[in-house]
Amino acid sequence: MEKIVLGADIGGSHITAALIDLDKKNEITKTRCRASLNTNAPVEEIIDAWATIIENTMNKHAGRPAWISIAMPGPMDYKNGICMIKDQGKYGALYNVNIKEKLAQRLDFSSDAISFRNDAVCFLQGEIFSGSLKGMDKAIGLTLGTGLGTAYIKNGEAYDADLWKMPFMKGIAEDYISTRWFVNRFEELAEVKIKDVKDLVDNHHNSPYFRSIFTEFSMNLAKFIYKFVRKKMPLAAVIGGNIVQAEAYFLDDTRKYLAQMMGYSFPVKRSVLGEEAALIGAGSSL
User: What's a Pfam family this protein contains (predicted)?
Assistant: First the structure.
């Protein structure tokens, strides 16, 4: 089992886990498990929910993995496994908690064999290895969901760009490029509260504000990518995360607006690996 690790992706609303074959650097079939999370729950409830999915994944294959590698949004002390998320509407109970130690205790697993990495970094690492940007050595990645994740590739290795808090328009980037923006902006325009972008697409397609909100988002995203490109000078970008499920309503416009700003057509690709990107990126980057 020394060539098999467990990769997990913990987001703002879910956890997904699968066993990864390090020799092949791909997901072992029929080992993936996923569950929704109450991210405002107490510490022990959150840790137990994570541990349950990890245990279910382990039980789908003979033996026990040598390592557990977890993709997790920041801010966080990744080396020591201490969560630093606060005032983001998620995981408030985990602030300043050593989640690595707590998870190790709950799983009866060595804390030395559990690692945390930034989720956007894992996403981009996976896409570079076997996804939309396979083999590329100079690229950027964005994960669009409950928060905004950003990463860049340098010499074949992915790093956290940490641009979610970059000053942007009248606030920070994540204020305008996240599920939160869609929820707040649609309520402002339509006086209707939505749960997330999926809710918007599924249940409010006929709203007179549906087209305009995606047009506005496309412009926001293009402006942000333009600033990101100017910082890192990549050859291409890849986009993932839950909001990408609605790509039909914003991605072409984003490319168009970005081309107008850049003066040429810059490659902005959608993730081909989806959730698998972060799992493979986490597992294969040990």
Answer: ROK
Half-sphere exposure (Cβ direction) of 41: Cα atoms closer than 13 Å: 15
Report the candidate in 115, 125, 73, 54 with the shortest Cα–Cα distance to residue 273.
Answer: 125
Name 131's Cβ contacts closer than 8 Å, sequence gap at least 6. Answer: 238, 271, 272, 273, 277
Long-range pairs, 262-266, Cβ under 8 A, ≥24: 262/226, 262/229, 266/225, 266/229, 266/236, 266/237
What is the distance between the alpha carbons of residues 119 and 148, in angstroms, rounded to a whole number? 10
Tens-digit pLDDT profile for residues 72-110: 988 899 999 999 998 888 899 999 999 999 999 999 999
Please, what are the domains in the chain? 4-109 (3.30.420.40), 134-272 (3.30.420.40)
Do residues 241 and 90 make contact, with C-beta atoms less than 8 angstroms apart?
Answer: no
Phi, psi of 8 (to 5 degrees): -130, 145
Read off the pTM.
0.87
Closest to 72 measured CA to CA, from 146, 129, 136, 130: 146
